[in-house]
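Data availability excerpt. The first of two example chains:
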Amino acid sequence: MLDLLRIGKKLAELRQKKEHTQDDIAEMLFVSHQAVSKWERGISLPSIDNMCFLMKLYSVSLEELLCLDAIANDFDLDRLFQEHNRQYIIHEVILNKIKDIYLQDIIHLLSKEERLYAIFLLFDQNQSISGELWPRLSLEERHMIIHKYKEGHIQLDLCVLNQMMTMSEIKKIKEIKK
C-alpha cells in the first residue's frame, strides 16, 4: 500500500532540491499548479506518464519516488498518524511491516470505522485475535467477532481468549458450540 503523505513529502523535497517551484513543474508537465500541490499534500498521485517524467527530472527510481524503499521501522507512536496516512499505517501494522508496533498498541488511537477495518483486515490476513488485543476491544467488537466465529467466517484460539473473556462472552461461546 502506498503512503500518499510520504510520497507527497518526497515529491516536494525533490522539487525543492532542484530549486523548482510548483508552477515550474506544472508547466513542464502541462498540468495545473493545483495538481502539483495535491500531489505534494498527499491528496493524489501523478499519472504514470508524469511519474516517468519526474523520475528522469529528479534522477530517481520509481521505488524511491514512491517511497517503496523507505518503510521506516523507527515510527514514533505519538507522531505515527500525524505524518502518515492512517489507512496505510493500519495496513502496515496488520502485515507486521512496522517493527515492534502491533494492533493492540494503536487500537485506542483509531476511530470506530478504522477499528472495524483493522479487525476485518486481521481476518482477511488469516491472523488471530491475540490475548493482548482482546481486552482492548469494545464489547460491540467482541460480540461481532464471536458472531463471525459462530458463522464459521473466522477461527479463534479459544484457549487463549477464554482467559480474557467475561462470563457472558464465555456463555455465548458455549451456546455457539451447541
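And the second chain:
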Amino acid sequence: MAVKIRLQRFGKKDSAFFHMVVADGRAPRDGKFIEKLGIYNPNTNPATIDINFDSTISWLMKGAQPTDTCRAILSYRGVMLKKHLLEGVKKGALTEAQAEQKFSKWQDEKSGKILGKHDRLKQESTAQAQARLKNESAIKEAKAAKIAAKVAEAANAAPASTSAEGESPAETATAE
C-alpha cells in the first residue's frame, strides 16, 4: 500500500483551505484518510500553515511520500530539513546535538523572515490606508472649494440683479 501525504480540499468556491492528511494512494482526494497532520490556508497573507511536526516526521520516516505541493509546504516549515538531519544522524554523519543545533539555527532565521514579511505587509497596508485618506481629504477639500466659489458667485450675482431692477418684488406689491 503506497501511503501519500497530500492535501484534502475544504471550503467554498474561490476560498478553499486544505487539511494535510496521510492517505492510501488509491483513495480519492477528499475521501478516506489515515491521519490528519495539519491545516494549510492559502487565503491569508502569508499563508497559514499549522502542522503536527512530530507526527509528520514519523510518517515521513516510515516512508510516506508527500505530493509536490505538500513537499513544498513541508520544506517551508522545515519538516523536510528535520527529516534530512535525522537521516544523517541515523547514518552517523551527525550527532543528535549537531542536528538540533542546525535545525534551531535554520528555524530562527526562517521565523525572522516570516515576521519581517508580516511586519512589512502591515506597514504597507497602513501606508496605503493613509494615502487613501489623504487623497480622499484632498478631493473633499477641492469639492468644498468649488461649492464655496459657486455660493460666493451666486451671492454676488443676486444683489446685482436686484439693484438692476430697482425694486424688489415685495416693494412693487406694496406700491400698488
